[in-house]
Design brief:
- Chains A, B: Homodimer.
- The structure is a homodimer.
- By secondary structure, chain A is mainly alpha-helical.
- Chain A has three domains: about 120 residues, MgtE N-terminal domain-like (MgtE N-terminal fold), CATH 1.25.60.10; about 100 residues, Roll (CBS-domain), CATH 3.10.580; about 170 residues, Tetracycline Repressor, domain 2, CATH 1.10.357.
- In chain A, about 70% of the residues lie in helices and about 5% in strands.
- The first copy, chain A, is built from 23 helices and six strands.
- In chain A, strands 1-2-3 form a three-stranded mixed β-sheet. In chain A, strands 4-5-6 form a three-stranded mixed β-sheet.
- Chains A and B meet through helix 1, helix 3, helix 12, strand 3 and helix 13 of A and helix 1, helix 3, helix 12, strand 3 and helix 13 of B.
Chain lengths: ~450, ~450
């Protein structure tokens, strides 16, 4: 009987395992784990604090460890591998897809890598050399080599008999690749075509020879965009001479899409996108401190700017009370623009042709925002402090800062991208620096000029 | 000849079309568009400012308009449909998949919807009623009904002849579904199985009857998590009685994954995740103003808190200079925790079992962070202002605020989730309010108590 999934199916399971684990029922946990598919074991490990993770891993059936490692998020996997015996790592990688195999090997510290390599047999050592030869984050590193190739001049009947002889197709196969004698890629034949067309036709007659192949050096985000746009399930990868090297399947692309989308969000908070939610305290603190350090410098810089106006602040302490409002609004408006542009760059919507239009648009929004919120804050402050001059000063500062926020929000990511710096990582800090400095300067500067007795 | 994709293939094309468009060569543009697949036309439209978008749309071959609409992002699609004649909308939706069909119908204003429905033939009107009956953002709304079903007691040979007779399979078909006389789902047979197993076997002998079916009411994010974890290409959808309704394919799931991942990032900046990068200025300004308004209230609240200490600020203006540092650090530390927890909730890693552990961890990080940055800022301020008492005061405030940031960063999203409020949308503002108020209160309060002469 097929089972209908309950909404919280895996949650219940997770809860049970956790309970059994905490009451020390290890045998029970081991039995439960033996009945879970590797993807669910991986999910369970990812959802566990690092201490229970170590215990859980010991209870995973060694035959499932390889597949489970494949399914794990990078950060969690590295943590587990670091505690494993090199010989066990070598054994676990044996059944892995090429792309996961390469990823695991790349994540190993040099000394461990040598030990793991030493525990492998000759074939695996050779495979390691091949998979590591492709540059990271390219189509070559994403692909696996388990493709089925056929020649253009045979009939479908021959192909059908050949497949029946094989008895099994590699997982996720939706098409066979047609190559010539030199292994040059000519086109592909969908499984659906094999099933629906007359067996007496030749491969050449039914193959799709307009089909696009991915060059091995293409970046993984471009690969992901192509898959997404064309609704591909798999795609062939070729080298510079047009020879077929392997294929990329949608499941690996889904990981890239998820990672890319999360990357922007995580980077904007100064986090690594593979950051493990359940990492130990000290490790997490260390990782996050870089970002806090950078921000401290920004904050001190802003304080330094405010320091120019110390005497003004002493005479008019109300300025100190209101001083946070303008920078805060600038930060929000700027980060809206920044986020939109970063997303636009990530999904490939922004290019040289529309860049100028976009800059114009965001600056216009900055000015419009500036006018709206200047009028509002002027009214609030004038009524609150019963001082229309103060209202005018803060209105002017607000307009200037929202205008600056629009300009900075759109140009910073575009410039960073030109310089090949990740806009999601560096953009926020630079933006905040601009909006803080402009905001403080505009407010306290104008106030010093117009309000001092 | 298959063509190897260049890195910037679509970028070049885009650039050419834009150039031709701006020089008014409409005939040329129309010809170029006629040779582009709908997915590339959609990408081009999404990457164009809204004015050129309208012109471009007029130049798209009406036969391709339906498919192009299917590929477009929601916001862009709605903009285009709003300018189309209802009869043309009805014609364009005819060839759409069920899920896109429902999405387009849902996006129409009531009056236009009635007109579009009026232009449809009877069959399409009935289809509209069916697809709209599934709740939005559920498996039912994601699925399409073009499945191929077979009976368990026939031989593969019969199935093969049946498929050959059909001549074509629905796009993205990787498995056939096995149902009984009452259309109850029994299991599935992969196309690969059909190709590799002996034709004399029956469907029952080769089918996977452990295969999981998705209930139609399951939320789309759960569906996406299942696909991602199990590396599915398609999955059957059943109703409460176990009857097969349709299937969900990976391409629609990829859209959900992309949307979900982007949703968090966009929401955190107060943006709609379907926000169109190239929307007109006024529309964008209006959309973003809600968030700026909420933030203004927060900023004024913070100013109000600072207002309690106006006389202190007048006596010690250096406090005004330094007042931004502690809230700023609290905001960053808190948003790191917040982002991590929001991501953890989104990917399903956080549950009742590990929640307490996570809270403990983030509070511990908050305290550790507090100690580190308290010592650092104390040193900087003491040396800068040559005033160790001031250093101690700001150190105390820093510790308190980073501790508060850790507590707030982890509890706010968990509580919001319990209350069924989107943590990505509301979390940031609540967090900033906490870190601003605590930061200002701790710093100016302690200073008033200890430093005033």
């Amino acid at each position: 009987m097929p089972e209908a999934l309950e909404q919280d199916y895996s949650q219940t399971q997770l809860h049970e395992v956790t309970k059994a684990l905490s009451s020390g029922m290890f045998v029970h946990v081991r039995r439960m784990l033996a009945h879970m598919p590797p993807c669910d074991i991986a999910h369970l490990l990812e959802s566990s604090p690092h201490k229970s993770r170590t215990v859980l891993w010991q209870l995973v059936d060694p035959d499932l460890q390889g597949e489970t490692l494949e399914e794990l998020a990078e950060d969690v996997r590295n943590g587990i591998i670091a505690q494993m015996d090199p010989a066990l790592v070598a054994a676990a990688t044996e059944e892995m897809d090429d792309d996961d195999f390469a990823e695991v090997l790349r994540s190993l510290p040099d000394t461990v890598y040598q030990e793991v390599l030493g525990s492998m047999d000759k074939t695996d050592q050779e495979r390691a050399t091949v998979v590591l030869s492709y540059e990271e984050e390219t189509a070559g590193a994403l692909m696996s080599t388990d493709t089925i190739t056929i020649r253009p001049d045979v009939t479908l009947d021959v192909v059908l008999r050949y497949l029946r002889l094989k008895g099994e197709l590699p997982e996720g196969t939706d098409e066979l690749y047609v190559v010539d004698k030199e292994n040059k890629f000519l086109g592909d034949v969908q499984l659906a075509t094999l099933l629906t067309k007359s067996p007496s036709l030749t491969v050449r007659e039914v193959m799709d020879n307009e089909s696009e192949a991915i060059p091995m050096s293409m970046g993984e985000s471009e690969v992901a965009q192509l898959f997404e746009r064309h609704n591909w399930i798999s795609a062939p990868v070729i080298d510079d001479n047009g020879q077929l090297l392997g294929r990329i399947t949608i499941d690996d692309v889904v990981d890239v899409i998820r990672e890319e989308a999360e990357h922007s969000m995580m980077s904007m908070a100064g986090l690594d996108d593979e950051e493990d939610t359940f990492a130990p305290v000290v490790k997490s603190t260390k990782r996050r401190s870089v970002w806090l350090g950078v921000n401290l410098v920004t904050a001190i810089l802003a304080a330094f700017v405010a320091g120019f106006f110390e005497s003004t602040l002493g005479i008019l302490p109300i300025l100190a009370v209101l001083n946070g409002i303008v920078p805060s609004m600038g930060g929000i408006a700027g980060s809206q623009t920044l986020t939109l542009v970063i997303r636009g760059i990530a999904v490939g919507h922004i290019n040289d042709a529309n860049q100028r239009w976009l800059i114009g648009k965001e600056i216009a929004i900055g000015m419009l925002n500036g006018m709206i919120w200047a009028v509002l804050i002027a009214t609030v402050v004038a009524l609150w402090q019963w001082d229309y001059k103060l209202g005018l000063v803060i209105a002017f500062a607000m307009f200037m800062n929202l205008f600056a926020a629009g300009c900075a929000g759109v140009t910073i990511p575009l410039v960073l991208k030109k310089l090949d710096i990740d806009p999601a990582l560096a953009g926020g800090v630079i933006l905040t620096t601009v909006t803080d400095v402009v905001g403080i300067f505009a407010f306290l500067g104008t106030a010093t000029y117009f309000l001092l007795p």
